Amino acid sequence: MNLPKWADVVLIPLINLLLALFVSGLVVLLIGEDPVNAMKIMVNGAVGSTYGWGYTLFYATNFIFTGLAVAVAFHARLFNIGGEGQAQLGSLGVALVCLALPWPHWTLALPAAMVGGALFGAAWAAIPAYLQARRGSHIVITTIMFNFIASALLVYLLVGALKAPGMAPESARFPEGTFLPNARDVFAMVGIPFARSPLNISFLVGLIGCFLVWLLLWRSRLGYEIRAYGHSEPAAKYAGIAPFRIIMITMLISGGLSGLMAINAVMGEQQRLLQDNVLGAGFVGIAVALMGRSHPVGVLLAAILFGALYQGGAELEFETSVPREMVLVIQALVILFTGALDNMVRGPVTTAFLRYGRRRPRAEPAE
Amino acid sequence: MSADAGTPAIELKGISKAFGPVQANKDISIRVMPGTIHGIIGENGAGKSTLMSILYGFYKADAGEILIGGRPTPIPDSQAAIAAGIGMVFQHFKLVENFSVLENVVLGAESGARLTPSLSKARKLLTDLAKEYELNVDPDALIQDLGVGMQQRVEILKALYRQADILILDEPTGVLTPAEADHLFRILEGLKAQGKTIILITHKLREIMEITDTVSVMRRGEMTATVKTAETSPEELAELMVGRKVLLRVDKTPAQPGKTVLEVENLRVTDDKGVERLKSVSLSVRAGEILGIAGVAGNGQSELLEVLGGVRPATGTVRMNGTPLDLEGARSDARTRREQGIAHVPEDRHREGLILDFHAWENVGFGYHHDPKYNRGWLMDNDALRRDTEAKIARFDVRPANCWLTAKNFSGGNQQKIVIARELERNPDLLLVGQPTRGVDIGAIEFIHQQIVALRDAGKAVLLVSVELDEIMSLSDRIAVMFDGKIMGERLPSETNERELGLLMAGITDTDRAHSAEEVEANLAKSVGRRVQ
């Protein structure tokens, strides 16, 4: 039976989220804190001020890119767990571009850095993709392993070739011409006060990315082939769609999107290459894509939600004795309920719809 | 309703079952007398399988009562069904491939923790049954080494071992050759003579007429009639099933074959497991004729279609209008084949022909999505595709006429109409069509056959693969029979009969001689494909 679309894309994720928050509340209660108060602090911290919004949307930008990356791969039924590593390689690409020239202005640096980040991310995804398409090595396994390789590669470069003078394993600071316009500066131009935060122009790039991914998946011939392949490989072969080509192209796009995350995190905030610049966003992207039903709009909303969880969680840690790990527990619960336990909610909701929904009988043949 | 005196072996009273808004069974009542064979016939989706699932405890009826031997017997699960003496032989066998026959028979009905007593009991039973009912099966053979007909016998033995008095068979002849089907019917006659009650579910009118005593017809979840088989005719049953008069024969004029369109020489296919599926196949199809490929499923017909459709690589020579086709290289894909004028209605529309989660209009572009008329540069012209879909839906009478419905929500017949519309409207030089009416209701069968004949009459070549011998006999202008990856022979429909084709399908070429059932079976077991399946 089919659920109405709104129930599928809005109602079920919402119920999942409420369940996750409810269980989180119980856990907060268990460690002796007031769950209602904790919730207030989290919500307030995430969206209660321009400062909160700035951080929420900054994190959300990271998750938009990694979420889109996972979503695109999902449509070809490829489970790209390697967003983390691809984003790390993307950060390397962005850093190399930013450090290569004394960039005069960000409008020149940004497109070049995007190309660098996307190329490096895509290249990192290309190897597991090739192994999957030609050798049948499972992409889940290979992409996970490539995360570790990426991390090790970055450490190697940051203590070696790219290391700036000083103690820390980090690159030199990027030239000022690569600094991206900050939300505070942009809002100030139109006279709106906005607190200092790392939110930058990359958020808009993310929004454009959402639109382009939608265009790719549902309006382009390539997207049609990707989705057809994802639904059925035998059918794709029957229609003359080559699995090898689809796996390669899809993973290149997916890796490229992951790599683009670095324009926000590295170019937009850190302004130098750090050893751990992705901070788990590659993995959060999986949850974002799951919760967003692999649709760009869903990914956008889920990314903002997870951004809020990150930012609200940080505030919670700051203001109460709820430890940092508690925030991870809440995030894990959201992932658990939206991803893994989806069917737990879906079943009863579907039954409820069948029972109380449309009562008018339809003359439809049954099996 | 049957007015026979006596207690029915099984009686259903007012059974109803709904799945959401879909009423699968509506107030169904039947009485099946002991020692009879009762047929249940109906189109796909008429509710036959739902009814049997209720009887076997898979579903719980919303309303109604089941009486066994006159006593009300609730059947909450299959354990209860077995306890009530009901045995079920499913369309898809439920056997453990790498267990022996004996182990399968005993599985789930062992008498204790030690297996040996059950096994010897089963061995004795098997020996007895083999004498009584022609149910001879080697008790120690592994299932994976047995042919389909034998495997079905193991299923029947499983039911008898559990002391079933009522045997339900769901589409039992779907995978059998005519000879095997005859053998099955002899077994059923024997069981009937021993007082067993048999319920036979099928969509084949011929079988109903041949073997049943009474027949119930289902349509749209309702039992429309129960009649004595001797007092009815196939035409009447078909009308009861569909609700209107149906033409059971294909109406066609003699073929006017023109130049040769497709030439196949020495075609060989080896699958991933290294098994040779096509062993030097040669054939040709001319413009304006339908070449039918008969054969039991798994004897290489699927591979032949796949090779010609560009889905599977092969070696050998295939010429299309005189031009050799690339069989292994970069231009051996399905897209190139379409450009070369080959349209392909695949055997399995769910697996290949359609993307079930796509809208109808997306499916109409499937395989032809590179066509300039569906595209505007980099993007697809979805409006053009939808307009084309609406036109096709109207011309092929697809119901419901809604191009936004996802493919899985159409009935089997309408799904097939979408595929046929997509492929036939390309006006191909060669149409490859596999199992065109599998799982399709009688009304749509008539329509689909007419469309295929119309394409032939327009001077196109058609290669038809079907496991339904009736369909091959009535549609083809020429028949080639495949067995074990080889063509066993070619016949003209006017000069052959089901018996001869049946023997060829079992790989026996000296068809003039009389052949015993054992000989046919032994030969069938040689076919690699049937076992690997």
Q: What would your notes on this structure say?
A:
The complex is a heterodimer of chains A (367) and B (533). Chain A has 367 residues and is mainly alpha-helical. Chain A has a domain at 60-303: ABC transporter involved in vitamin B12 uptake, BtuC. Chain A is 74% helix and 0% strand. Chain A is globular and about 65 Å long. By secondary structure, chain B is an alpha/beta fold. Chain B folds into 2 domains: 10-242, P-loop containing nucleotide triphosphate hydrolases (Rossmann fold); 260-350 and 428-532, P-loop containing nucleotide triphosphate hydrolases (Rossmann fold, 3-Layer(aba) Sandwich). The longest helix of chain B is centred in the first third of the chain and has 19 residues, at 115-133. The A-B interface holds A 1-2, 215, 219-221, 224-225, 227-228, 231-232, 234-235, 237-242, 354, 358-367 and B 19-24, 44-47, 49-50, 220-221, 309-311, 333-338, 344, 346, 351-358, 362, 365-367, 369-370, 375, 378-380, 382, 406, 409, 411.
List the helices and strands and how they pair.
The complex is a heterodimer of chains A (367) and B (533).
Chain A: H1 5-30, H2 35-47, H3 50-75, H4 83-100, H5 106-135, H6 139-158, H7 183-189, H8 202-219, H9 221-231, H10 233-238, H11 243-270, H12 281-291, H13 296-319, H14 324-340, H15 342-356
Helix pairs in contact in A: 1-2, 1-14, 1-15, 2-3, 2-13, 3-8, 3-11, 3-12, 3-13, 4-5, 4-6, 4-11, 4-12, 5-6, 5-11, 8-9, 8-13, 9-11, 12-13, 12-14, 13-14
Chain B: E1 10-19, E2 22-32, E3 37-42, H1 48-55, E4 63-68, E5 71-72, H2 78-83, E6 86-89, H3 101-106, H4 115-133, H5 148-161, E7 166-170, H6 178-193, E8 197-202, H7 205-211, E9 214-219, E10 222-228, H8 234-242, E11 260-270, E12 276-286, E13 290-294, H9 301-309, E14 315-320, E15 323-324, H10 334-339, E16 342-345, H11 349-353, H12 360-364, E17 375-376, E18 379-380, H13 382-395, H14 412-424, E19 430-434, H15 442-457, E20 461-465, H16 469-475, E21 478-483, E22 486-491, H17 498-505, H18 517-524, H19 528-532
Parallel strand pairs in B: 3-8, 3-9, 6-7, 7-8, 13-20, 13-21, 16-19, 19-20
Antiparallel strand pairs in B: 1-2, 1-4, 4-5, 9-10, 11-12, 11-14, 14-15, 17-18, 21-22
